[in-house]
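Example record

The entry below shows one chain as it appears in the dataset: sequence first, then structure tokens.
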Amino acid sequence: MKKVLYVPLDDRPANLDDVIVQGKAAGLHIVTPNRKDIQNRLDSEKTVDGTTLLGTSTPQYGKPSNIHDFILEHAAEVEGFIISSDMLAYGGLIGSRELRENGGGDYPNYDQETTRLLDVIRVIKEKYPCKPVYVMDTIMRLATTSFADGLALDAYNESRALMQQPRQTFTAFEDIIQGYNVSPDSTEYGETTYFDKEQYYNTRQHKFKTNLYILDQLARKGYIDFLAVGVDDANTQGVQINEIRYVENRINEWLGGVAGQNPDRAIILPDADGLGHSLLARMANQLIRDGAKTRYAVTYFGPHGNTIVNTYEYMNVHENVARHIDIVGGVLVADSAYPVPETDTDLVKGENVRQDGVAPQAATFDVASELDRMTRHSHKNKSEPNLEIVAITALEEVEAAVERINANSEEGVPTVVIDFVGKGPANVDVAEALLNSPHTGRVLGYSAWNTPGNKIGIAVGMGQSRYAFITKETNASALEEAMSAHGSLLFKRFQKDYYYKAVAIADIRTYSRAHALYTNVATLADQNMLLFNSSEDYEHLQSLLRDLMQTYTTTLAAKPAFAQGNDAVVQLEDGESSYAKYQNAELEYTNPDFIWGRAFEITLNPQVTLVSI
């Protein structure tokens, strides 16, 4: 089994547990740092006055120096590297947002310790030039982190509202970092109440210097084989836009990009928590299929994705799908919507226009160059796709989507399913329709979790890595072991995205809020239950969670998609599928837990067993 070194964004399941299982489903062993070194937690201490919460403090971030050493210690034994720069430089995603007293020195010597940590990427590439090195970086999000470093929900709301206000356009690096507070009419935005705006801008300056260092000193010089830049918690306007356009221009200038993207070297797009899945898929495709391009089609059941821009993203859904396909090592060769819209919504018409109607300044959309980008990898792009994405964008079209999934299954067409109807969790009716089809148990990827970028990254990542494995692996025991891992991950996606996020979480939130210790946080007690609920109530919430998830595990295992005896694809060889049968699904009672002490995400690791026919 080939080994891949993986430094995650943080220790939340989407970034760690699920990527490890995804690797198993592709026949890869994922080597990760000690969990104590990547552990992130919200504030763990509080000050109170009777039933009033006065403040919180003392979050926990990862240990960058230990991550640096881990990479060096394991470099010789692995075949490839996937490294989160946020974990390596800051101890994780929330650590990268920690407010600072200053923004560091002048670039490139802005922070000796940060650049020392990042330069481990240079060291491993120089020592192991033939091993692929993939890096995921992020553009800092608009908002602060709630209940980390004493910043409450008021700070989150105020910071996001201010930072999504339009900024004056700047193109030079120094102008951008000095102009964070400048409006389009050259006036300064006013003072803030709930967070220190200057410290926020210091943090943003430091982070953007790190973004530049990675592009300039590492990717540009060939020490990074592929760079995925995720824009976390974005908007079509605001303080991020100059940074995004700057990165796009550097990808064009330094990395041979077109329209701010290069599928062979660097992609920037709205996502963060789906990047681990996506880069692992690219790694699987490289190690197993020597980087051969997988041909994708996407069919929208409902409005075409180029008509949809999410509140937390700056790119329309269709372009986001196309860019994720680039990341995983595929190429988009066909797209359509069902029912067919009255006007032409083909990929090459206007998809790069922002929601505000203003064309991006970094790299305007060019039909000829985009067609060249899509076709230069393969002379076969006009032939049938290898894999289809069924993207559900309207509830009323879910039955048509299920019919397509069924038809693909019967015809041996590998399929990935994404629920865009659900705005964060799965849509209940969409999930039920999917689960009532036994063919859903055969899909290679599925997600309904969180933002569109997260959904796409997780689902397409699952699909690509699994496709690489089942089309190349021939060893029977390896195929069966990987099949159970895939079944477990697919089962989990429905268990978490639907049964927890759309159903069970309501009971958790209701109990937590009803038993809040402090009146001024009663409506949001579930955001830090370790602090805002008593220890007895927290134990009750854990038991409630575990009881609920036992019930829903049994319910899910009885659905046609995962029912005992239902088929799943274990191998795809020369267009012919071999199958395994679902045998059973179990969830250890004590496994579900609130990993960050809040309701939003939980540890959930079901074990599904399949046996070959």
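Notes for this example: The two ends are 23 Å apart (CA to CA). The chain is about 40% helix and 15% strand.
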